[in-house]
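HUMAN: Forgive my ignorance: could you write out one protein's sequence and backbone structure tokens?

ASSISTANT:
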Amino acid sequence: MKKIIFIFLVTAFSFGAETIWEQNLSKYFNNQSFSGIHYFAFNTVDNNTETTYKFNVRRNYLTFKNKLNDYINFRITYDVYQNDDGDWDNSLKYAYIYFKKVLPYTDLEIGQAHTTWIDYEKKSSWKYDLASRVFLDDRSGANLLASADLGFKLITNLDYFSSAVGVYDGEGQNRNSEGKGLSVEARLTYHILGNSYKKDYLNLSVLGNNNNNNELESSNNSNVYGVHLVYKNDFVILSVQYIDSKVQNEASKDGYSFSGDYSINKNLNLFGMYSSFEDTKTRLAGLSYKINQNINTVAMFKNYSSIDEYHLGLQLKW
């Protein structure tokens, strides 16, 4: 009889614990989402010596997000792509926890997080990052900053001011750090017409990056400073940027970029960019046609370092 009672109690306790566990799981994991961004392209590249024709997969972002409660959520983004040699490669793009209101008007992002500048520029002035990266992240441009890194970032948003201040390993999402130094990065933005990406805006930003023992620069200290102005209305997005960079024991380097995006109609856009850094000048022009809310196409011409690139791209978002 005692065995029967014992088995009954254990079963009841297990059932109750399982029910409580399921309730807790339901409570904390009922706001999950999966999404993807896939970019397929065909490139013709003429470098004055030979011409190549290649299909490639620029990006395959797979993202899982979960809202734990009103103040905490997390994100994981995995990327599968073809590298410069055409071989398949993969990396962890993002893996961070996001805490809202850790300070007044201020949120915290910690883990493999967005860096302070690249994410802002893509959201505010350049929608074609999968076809050609922004100036400071582009190999044919300045190529000085990464879009993600291990560390943390504090994000502040007010009606006419926003900022992002972060501390990172300093080597970007695709390089291992030896731990010899850290990178301190910041963006300060004055939203002249108000802080919103959903209406007209005119934003003036300054950015800074102080990277100690930057392993990409032979473990020398490096600094990047810049100013950026962007204007948007219902028809155009126009931006201009100037940057100055200095690597320890080397001469300073500076550069600039202009970009524009004109909406011919709700589906068709004309866009372009011109940039100059050291001896490299990059010219880019293209058309984008949005088939529906999930599929976008791009036709683009890009010239840099005596290289002509013709690009056809197809982007799928779900």
In short: The chain has two helices and 16 strands. Residues 1-30 form one domain. The mean pLDDT is 88.
